Amino acid sequence: MFQLSQIRCFVVVANELHFGRAAARLHMTQPPLSRQIQQLEAALGVPLLERNQRNVRLTPAGKAFLPEATYLLEASQTAASVARRAASGEAGSISLGYVAGASFVLLPRIVAAARAQLPGLDVVLRDMSSVEQYEALLSGRLDVGIVRAPADRADLRSASVVREPFVAAVPVGHPLAARRKLAMADLHGQDLVMYEPGQGGSMYELLTAAFHAAHVAPRYVQYVRQTYCVMGLVSSGIGIALVQASAAGLRVPGVVARPIALPPDTVSEMHLAWRAADEKTNPAVERFRRLVLAFQ
User: Fold this and answer.
1) Distance CA 218, CA 216 (A)
2) Helix H segments across the chain?
3) pLDDT confidence tier of residue 89, bands split at 50, 70 and 90
4) Residues contacting residue 101 through CB under 8 Å, at least 6 positions apart
5) Which position has the higher pLDDT, 193 or 130?
6) Displacement of CA 280 from its chain's centroid (Å)
7) Vertex 155: Cα angle to 195 and 108 (nearest 5)
8) What's the pLDDT tens digit per position in 129-183?
9) Burial code of 38-58, b = ≥16 C-beta within 10 A, e = fewer?
10) Contact 144, 228 (CB under 8 A)
11) Residue ranges per domain, the chain?
């Protein structure tokens, strides 16, 4: 099989049609250049050049082979460049998991920043719960995740990227919609749409713990997983809900958002999670991680 060095020699000779000038361009003498061409012709089993003391001409096989040989050289250079860029983290692909709440503000910011600052990096999005993301990180099916709860394993890392208050989503026409600001006690005995427990996102655990500590007992009328669904149910009038403040930007018809006084540590939080080993072995993940953490 022929080698790229032989292809390179042939392309230069074919363009120059002169061994002396070709050898000068390749920074070599004519005898080794002639051997490279002879070895290429032997590997292909056909003559590529007709040469005598005065002239060098391409054979029909040489004319047909020249554009393919030129493409091979360009492709090899492209492949080398792609490999170097991937090794430095400038190019490649990463899979990014995210909880639905990240799609309101954080995820669009991340995607826009990655396109602007890491244009060679292809970010593939995966809508997953926090539990699903941690399982996918451990199995290697996911590179980075935006999760609700921080990592609790030695082989995973996480960092907080968003902390925002909760607001009360109230149906239009509900008595509490007339208030400018609510207190936790206002929710006692009220019908409440609550996040589904057991999703590893801590929203249910966080809010129910705050209610318990304040001796507030809402009536839970529905448990759902996604904030979009929470807002839709509030719009239907079946109850109030506590949602992250950025969800108010959805502007769901029939719903008004009201500030509510909660304990200082009762906030909606999101974390960036990744495998600890990737900090040293995956340059693309490391560059992406630094980009996102710069949002703090």
Assistant:
1) 6
2) 4-16, 19-25, 30-44, 60-88, 106-117, 130-139, 203-213, 227-236, 278-281, 283-293
3) low
4) 148, 227, 244, 246, 247, 268, 270
5) 193
6) 18
7) 50
8) 888 999 999 999 999 999 988 888 899 999 999 999 999 999 999 999 999 999 9
9) eebbeebeeebbeeeeeebeb
10) no
11) 4-88, 92-162+269-293, 166-266
**CATH architecture for segment(s) 166-266:** 3-Layer(aba) Sandwich (3.40)
Beta bridge partners of 169: 241, 257
For residue 236, give every residue at least 6 positions away whose Cβ sits within 8 Å of its Cβ, in sequence order, or none: 171, 254
> Which residue is associated with the tokens 């096989």?
61
Residues 207-233: pLDDT tens digits?
A: 999 999 999 999 999 999 889 899 999
Residue 25 exposed, middle or buried by CB count within 10 Å (0-12, 13-18, 19+): middle
- Residue 120 is predicted with a pLDDT of 83
What is the Cα–Cα distance from 94 to 88, expressed in whole angstroms? 14
| 4-88 and 166-266 have identical folds | no
Of 106, 242, 121, nearest to 170 by C-alpha is 242
Residues of the chain above pLDDT 90, percent: 51
> What is the fold of 92-162+269-293?
D-Maltodextrin-Binding Protein; domain 2 (3.40.190)
Assign domain 4-88 to a CATH class.
mainly alpha
The pLDDT value given to residue 92: 77
Please give the pLDDT value at position 54: 73
What are the tokens at 142? 């996911």
What DSSP element (H or E) covers 45? none
Lowest mean pLDDT among 45-54, 231-240, 254-263: 45-54
